[in-house]
Amino acid sequence: MSDQTKFIPFFPNPVERAHYIAGPCSAETEEQVIGTAKALKEIGIDIFRAGIWKPRTRPNAFEGHGEKALAWLREAKKETGLKVATEVASPAHLDLVLKYDIDVIWIGARTVVNPFSVQAIADALRGVDIPVMVKNPINPDLKLWIGALERIQGAGIKRIAAIHRGFSAFGDTEYRNPPRWQMPIELRRLFPELTLICDSSHICGNRQMLESVSQKALDLGYDGVHLEVHPDPDHALSDAAQQITPAVFKDIKSRLIFRKLSTDNLEYLENLQNLRRQIDDLDDELISILGERMKLARKIGQYKGENNISIYQPERWNEILTSCMKKGQLKQLSDQFIANMLKTIHQESIDQQGHVIGSKAPGPNDGKIK
Ligand code: PEP
Ligand code: MN
Q1: Residue 163 CA, closest ligand 1 atom number
Q2: What is the pTM of this model?
Q3: What is the pLDDT of residue 4?
Q4: How far is CA 58 from the centre of its chain?
Q5: Nearest to 125 by CA among 77, 159, 100
Q6: Is 49's C-beta closer than 6 angstroms to any atom of ligand 1?
Q7: What single-letter DSSP state applies at residue 25?
Q8: What is the dihedral of CA 322, 323, 328, 333, to 10 degrees?
Q9: Are 260 and 223 in contact (CB under 8 A)?
Q10: pLDDT tens digits for 75-109?
């Protein structure tokens, strides 16, 4: 995205609280839509959601009621005063959504993977004033997510939010779509003003983890949470395992803690500054130690080169890994962290030794020394 790209807050009059988008996975009947909307209005949400066209992984599953359900959403809006949202996957969907006065649209994870589809929706959005939420693509490709946000913004849409719904994975994982938190964290780093919502329902795929995942997102500074709510989750026509009743939603919402980005409490600010200074000092030390370590690695590289010895020595690498993990445990550092950190250091070391030996091919870290 260009440097000039600036997002404006998605929610009007942003306040210091978590925002909630909730509603059934699919609009199933008029009573279900209106009943759920009324219950959620009472609990307090920002946007009521329901899927009208359902992108199903396999054929013969419930694919949504289409246009007739848009009338139910419009009625829910009229009866509750809530803003209503649905998924749009094509310009034809967008035409219908606008015809039925839907307030907000989202582009689903399976559509975001396809730049042709996203561009077609973006072109159809030109001249339309509607807030758009863009889910992450099902594959963990941050650039593709950013590209979709860019296309929508390029169409002149002002109010845009990103929805993090996790990423597909093969095989059994504890999540339906593992969150890979580093992706939304990087999105936030690149575009701090872009509103970020956590779709805990599609990340978890179950009810048990909804609260902890939602809280984790709020701990990371997300602006809000998206949860699928159904009056009778067990009999829902789609995503039954992850949907919750309005009562459970109310419970979870009452326990979630919103975390502000900052505060003007002076004592807190002073203490934080003090701790951060100590962190900065330690980071300086880390960099200087790493520099020294690489100096030694280059020296070793030179000896290996002179003696025609291979750079990579699996036995030595295993030895370092095992002994550092043991030491790490005594300092409350997880094996995973030690392994990841050492792998990065080791790769850099191999690259630098490669440079000394005169290898032309890029190394694992592709680390050119400037
Ligand atoms: C949905 O929100 O109901 C949906 C289909 O989500 P996703 O595009 O994230 O799979
Ligand atoms: Mn769903």
Answers
A1: 9
A2: 0.87
A3: 53
A4: 25
A5: 159
A6: no
A7: S
A8: -10
A9: no
A10: 999 999 999 999 999 999 999 999 999 999 999 99
